[in-house]
Amino acid sequence: MIVLTICMGGCRNSDPNTRPSPLRKDSIIINNKLYKTEYSSPSVRKRKIWGELEPYNQVWRTGANDATIIEVQTDIRLSGQILPMGKYAFFTIPGQVNWTMIFNKEWEQWGAYNYNEEKDEIRIKVKPEWLSENQEKLEIYFTKKEFILRWEFIKVAVPFEVLD
User: Fold this and answer.
1) What is the pLDDT of residues 50-109, one digit of tens each?
2) Closest to 146 measured CA to CA, from 155, 130, 156, 157
């Protein structure tokens, strides 16, 4: 017997650990408060990412599979804008000169297929830094001073400050 599965709009592998872009979680504790990221981390795999695999000037889920989740246990300031305590979907709009980082209140969604700009909490314009060394796997994380995204030859960093 042959079983054929047809997926309309993409198949969703229920086990995040067996996906080609594995689930990754990163967190930092500052002043006893947690700041974390949860995302599926694709690899470059000898592909040209910016402007090809991920087109310029289009909303990108910023990862693979489910939308990337950012969770903060206090209000924070990112590049001068306040992001209230909570859980957010993280999207970006890559550009050749500037990127837009988006923190959206509808955090539980698949990809960016149902992205709704009206649910954005904040948007931040940032200039990416081109790196000389390839970052094979996507990384999204907080440090004590920055919120950072790195993949292929791009690093996007935003100043980060905890508001008590």
Assistant:
1) 999 999 999 999 999 999 999 999 999 999 999 999 999 999 999 999 999 999 999 988
2) 157
Region 15-34: mean pLDDT is: 85
Choose among 30, 100, 40: nearest CA to 72.
30
Retrieve residue 55's tokens.
């087109």
Domain boundaries, the chain: 33-162
Tokens of 148: 């950072």
Sheet holding 99-104, edge to edge: 23-30, 33-40, 64-72, 86-93, 99-104, 120-126
**Structure pTM?**
0.86
Q: What is the pLDDT of residue 14?
A: 56
